[in-house]
Here is the input.
Amino acid sequence: MQFDLITVLPGLLESPFAHSILQRAQKKGITKIIVHNLRDYADNKHKNVDDYPYGGGSGMVMSIEPFAACINKLKSEREYDEIIFMTPDGEMLTQTIANNLSSKENIIILCGHYKGIDQRIRDIFVTREISIGDYVLSGGELPAAVLVDAVVRLIPGVLSDETSALSDSFQGDLLDAPVYTRPADWMGYKVPEVLLGGSHSAIEQWRDEQAFERTKKRRPDLLK
Ligand code: ADE
Here is the structure.
């Protein structure tokens, strides 16, 4: 699976993909994450990628030409399943969306900045608009990193223990049960007895109950 991210701040996306699971997935050749600097596609002396908004108002608007040049170059090289624009007015990212995207082959992600991007980019090229929450960030880079992380860990073969993605919170409509490791007793705070015994069925039942109780308390909306 290949991700092509288009941004004016490629440096912001260096670290998130260079560690842990995302780094391993790339080394194993399961995914390719390529960051493109939008300024490389600006066809003007000062490498400007934005301009004043028509009709006035504050802030700059990202122009269509550099995005079009970059997207068209990528589309000439391979077919893309989705061209996603990260934006707070998009559909809210959920585990269901991440699952759906993890079965795709090639995805372009556009990261916006300033006051927004020329609406024609969204109308002409974008197939899907995704938000990571009801708050506004400075740009689409961190949301893009969140999306790529959520999707890549679901690709078969990325996690060494494949069942561990299946038992994630949200994967089965329930939040995760609490987890513990050694010591069994830390200054009087004890690990639940059932986890120390060897009964797998008792442990499974306890985890199911805990997951249900936690979901009922924290996210009753998930049980509906
Ligand atoms: N860009 C700025 N804020 C965002 C958000 N909450 N989700 C996705 N993209 C964004």
